[in-house]
């Protein structure tokens, strides 16, 4: 935990985890990278476009018995749409991504053990098409979608710098049992995440955004019927 | 239970009662002869001896 | 509440989800209801397709005609199954024969749902997160089994207005395959690149109409049942079968535990041949119950090619009340091209029902007759009646047995049939509904297709 000040505007900055070395200043939107005790400005992050997502930084939830808090967000866009990835910081210091797309949520954790034709093709910049296979943590996933993506905005604390114009390639995969995975190539790195679809009730999300005229979901204690 | 099922159950009870009464009175639907039901009067037939 | 500093760039809590904008083509006022997920928006005033993936709306397809309003207006909110939904988009599709409408519903916490209107019933559909598994010839997901329906068909979009989370356009085609379960439908939509699964729940009549404040619809009584419309007779049939089983068990118990018949009296009498009237009286026949059935059996063992007419009269000694019965004992045998044959019941029984209490005499008026096979008769012999040329008569011994009580088998059978009547009617109605639902050809139906 490091409490410090933004090198650009002086506003308070907090780094909660050594793994999450990047923080987008809430006030001036400078992207600040921390290495040990030194802070470095690496640019300005684009503002996340306005949306009606129920999630916001500070939302708490749990994956089974592990509790997390949303500490950052990256908004991605592609030709025919966009989605958000919320950074989950768990109690034990590990992190994951809560993907939000078309009103559905995917809880994804990083997976190191990934092999198969998909990551291999992505590493050399080749074409990935639906149906191709990747093996993640020993299980087979099939590609459902593959697209070129760019970052449309970011906020909060993040594991790596994400500023506007970052070009990447994102592949969605799934299994018949409903589990889902995501492999992203950005710069030269290929990263894989695996998880499943969840609802807000499944993760017991609290601290959600409130909207005028919309009752909170029923599972939230004290709200609804 | 739906209304028609309750009605049917009552009918069955009635049928059971009717059966018990008929059996007690020795009624048989396949009888070739015998008394008409008790509520039919005037069934005196020819007498022999 | 939140420990994160509120920034000047973050939208305030409690803001509305609806953003009012102007169409870049016609300038008309339009709403953006699902910012962040909406990808394409069709302006309701001019029909232009606008791109919503950038902060500024951009015209993709220009149009200049007003679009007709959907039955449930865009922006309407209604509650279904405890969840409030807002209509953000509307489209009409057709399978080439029948059209239907779909409303894209949105809730910021629940995501999207589809309200499907086939003109008569409404269904609420949600996208599935998992791929259903095959279970014999049926699909199964979440423990629910869905049976196949009609062959895969092509669904084509014919009309679009409002906002959607995919690049919707008129003319868009998908291959659809439907599977049905009671009040549920599973649909697979495929457009070559990807396949999505939707599970829809058939809403009870009036539910969607009340939720979105549109006029209620009348059911037509003879319409073909939908594939997901369960038989309204199924539950009643199950209940009726349970009740029938219980009633039958009680009847069987009563029938089995009923006292069996008792032998009251047995006598051997002799019946002469060809006398006009010959009465024998046997008795006493004591009938102690208030009412009972009486069974009289006449066994004629030595009968051969003859028959006996027997008239019975059961006469109460004191009141002279009498009950009449009649039986024929017969036995014929012979030989023809197929070999030896014999027929006839030589042990007939007569049942008297509901005989009142009393002491009775049984008057037996019997006459025996010979039967001559016409083929074997001497020439000139007049057939059957009359036996003037035959040797003088014997007497036929007849063993008469009188029993009282018992014999409730027939009654039991009759009442079991009566009890089975209602479940049988329900079963036929149910089977008829299911046959029409599944579209099997009907013998007496002209339009039993689909």
Could you give the topology of this structure?
The complex is a heterotrimer of chains A (225), B (49) and C (450).
Chain A: E1 2-5, E2 12-15, E3 22-24, E4 30-35, E5 38-44, E6 60-63, E7 66-78, E8 81-90, E9 95-101, E10 104-111, E11 114-115, H1 117-123, E12 133-136, E13 139-158, E14 167-174, E15 179-186, E16 189-198
Antiparallel strand pairs in A: 1-2, 3-4, 3-13, 4-5, 6-7, 7-8, 7-13, 8-9, 9-10, 10-16, 11-12, 12-13, 13-14, 14-15, 15-16
Chain B: H1 3-24, E1 33-34
Chain C: E1 19-22, E2 29-32, E3 40-42, E4 49-51, E5 58-61, E6 77-80, E7 83-94, E8 99-107, E9 111-117, E10 122-127, E11 133-135, E12 138-141, E13 144-148, E14 153-164, E15 173-181, E16 184-190, E17 195-202, H1 207-211, H2 234-257, E18 262-272, E19 279-299, E20 306-316, E21 322-336, E22 339-343, E23 349-370, E24 395-404, H3 409-438
Helix pairs in contact in C: 2-3
What does this 3D model show about the protein?
Chain C: It holds the Pfam family DUF4178. Chain C: InterPro entries: DUF4178. Chain C: Residues 74-201 form the DUF4178 domain. Chain C: This is Putative RNA-binding Zn-ribbon protein involved in translation (DUF1610 family). Chain C: Keywords: Membrane, Transmembrane, Transmembrane helix. The complex is a heterotrimer of chains A (225), B (49) and C (450). Chain A has 225 residues and is mainly beta. Chain A is built from one helix and 16 strands. Chain A has one helix at 117-123; strands at residues 2-5, 12-15, 22-24, 30-35, 38-44, 60-63, 66-78, 81-90, 95-101, 104-111, 114-115, 133-136, 139-158, 167-174, 179-186, 189-198. Chain A has an eight-stranded antiparallel beta barrel. Chain A is globular and about 50 Å long. Chain B has 49 residues and is mostly helical. Chain B has one helix spanning 3-24; one strand at 33-34. The longest helix of chain B has 22 residues, at 3-24. Chain B is elongated. The model of chain B is unreliable at 39-49 (pLDDT under 50). Chain C is mainly beta. Chain C folds into two domains: 19-211, no CATH class; 262-406, Sandwich (Jelly Rolls). Helices cover 13% and strands 44% of the residues of chain C. In chain C, the strands form three sheets. An eight-stranded antiparallel β-barrel of chain C has the order 7-8-9-10-17-16-15-14. In chain C, helix 2 (234-257) runs antiparallel to helix 3 (409-438). Chains in contact: A-C, B-C. Strand 1 of chain B pairs parallel with strand 23 of chain C, so a sheet runs across the interface.
């Amino acid at each position: 935990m490091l409490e410090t000040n933004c090198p650009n505007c002086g506003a308070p900055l907090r780094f909660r985890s050594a793994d999450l070395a990047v923080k987008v200043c809430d006030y001036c939107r400078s992207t600040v990278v921390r290495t040990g005790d030194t802070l470095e400005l690496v640019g300005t992050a684009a503002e996340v476009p306005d949306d009606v997502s129920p999630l916001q930084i500070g939302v708490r939830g749990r994956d089974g018995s592990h509790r997390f808090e949303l500490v950052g967000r990256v908004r991605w866009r592609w030709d025919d749409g966009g989605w958000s990835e919320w950074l989950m910081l768990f109690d034990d210091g590990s992190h994951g991504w809560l993907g939000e797309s078309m009103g559905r949520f995917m809880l994804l954790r990083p997976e190191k053990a990934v092999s198969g034709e998909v990551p291999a093709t992505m590493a050399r910049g080749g074409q990935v098409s639906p149906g191709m296979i990747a093996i993640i943590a020993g299980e087979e996933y099939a590609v459902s979608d593959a697209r070129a993506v760019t970052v449309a905005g970011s906020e909060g604390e993040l594991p790596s710098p994400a500023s506007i114009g970052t070009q990447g390639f994102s592949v969605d995969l799934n299994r018949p049992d409903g589990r889902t995975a995501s492999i992203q190539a950005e710069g030269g790195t290929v990263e894989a995440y695996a998880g499943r679809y969840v609802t807000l009730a499944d993760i017991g999300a609290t601290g959600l955004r409130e909207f005028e005229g919309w009752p909170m979901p029923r599972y939230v204690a004290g709200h609804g019927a | 239970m739906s209304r028609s099922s309750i009605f049917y159950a009552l009918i069955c009870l009635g049928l059971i009662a009717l059966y018990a009464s008929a059996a007690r009175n020795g009624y048989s639907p396949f009888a070739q002869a015998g008394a008409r039901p008790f509520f039919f009067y005037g069934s005196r037939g020819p007498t022999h001896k | 509440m939140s420990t994160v500093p509120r920034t000047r760039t973050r939208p305030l809590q409690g803001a509305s989800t609806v953003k009012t904008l102007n169409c870049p083509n016609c300038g008309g006022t339009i709403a953006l209801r699902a910012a962040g997920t909406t990808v394409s928006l069709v302006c309701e005033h001019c029909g232009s397709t606008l791109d919503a993936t950038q902060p500024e709306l951009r015209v993709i397809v220009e149009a200049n005609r007003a679009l007709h309003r959907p039955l449930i207006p865009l922006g309407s909110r209604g509650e279904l199954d405890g969840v409030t939904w807002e209509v953000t988009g509307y489209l009409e599709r057709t399978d080439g024969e029948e059209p239907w409408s779909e409303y894209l519903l949105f809730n910021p916490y629940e995501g999207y749902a589809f309200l499907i209107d086939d003109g008569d019933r409404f269904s609420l559909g949600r996208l599935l997160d998992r791929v259903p598994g095959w279970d014999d010839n049926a699909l199964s997901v979440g423990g629910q089994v869905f049976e196949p329906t009609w062959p895969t068909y092509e669904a084509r979009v014919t009309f679009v207005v409002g906002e959607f989370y995919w690049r919707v356009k008129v003319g868009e085609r998908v291959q659809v395959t439907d599977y049905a379960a009671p009040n549920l439908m599973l649909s697979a939509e495929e457009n070559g690149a990807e396949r999505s699964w939707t599970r829809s729940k058939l809403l009870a009549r009036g539910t969607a109409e009340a939720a979105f404040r549109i006029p209620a619809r009348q059911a037509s009584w003879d319409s073909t049942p939908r594939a997901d419309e369960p038989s309204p007779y199924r539950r009643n049939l199950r209940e009726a079968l349970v009740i029938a089983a219980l009633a039958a068990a009680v009847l069987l118990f009563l029938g089995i535990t009923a006292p069996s018949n008792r032998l009251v009296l047995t006598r051997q009498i002799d019946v002469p041949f060809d006398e006009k009237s010959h009465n024998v009286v046997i008795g006493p026949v004591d009938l102690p119950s208030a009412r009972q059935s009486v069974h009289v059996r006449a066994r004629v063992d030595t009968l051969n090619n003859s028959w006996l007419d027997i008239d019975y009269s059961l006469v109460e000694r004191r009141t002279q009340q009498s009950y009449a019965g009649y039986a024929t004992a017969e036995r014929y045998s012979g030989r023809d091209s197929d070999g030896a044959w014999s027929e006839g019941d030589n042990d007939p029984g007569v049942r008297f029902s509901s005989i009142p209490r009393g002491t009775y005499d049984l008057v037996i008026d019997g006459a025996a007759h010979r039967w001559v096979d016409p083929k074997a008769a001497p020439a000139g012999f007049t057939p059957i009646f009359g036996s003037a040329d035959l040797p003088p008569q014997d007497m036929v011994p007849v063993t008469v047995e009188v029993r009282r009580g018992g014999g409730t088998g027939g009654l039991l059978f009759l009442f079991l049939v009566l009890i089975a009547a209602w479940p049988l009617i329900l079963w036929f109605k149910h089977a008829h509904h299911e046959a029409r639902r599944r579209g099997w050809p009907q013998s007496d139906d002209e339009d039993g297709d689909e």
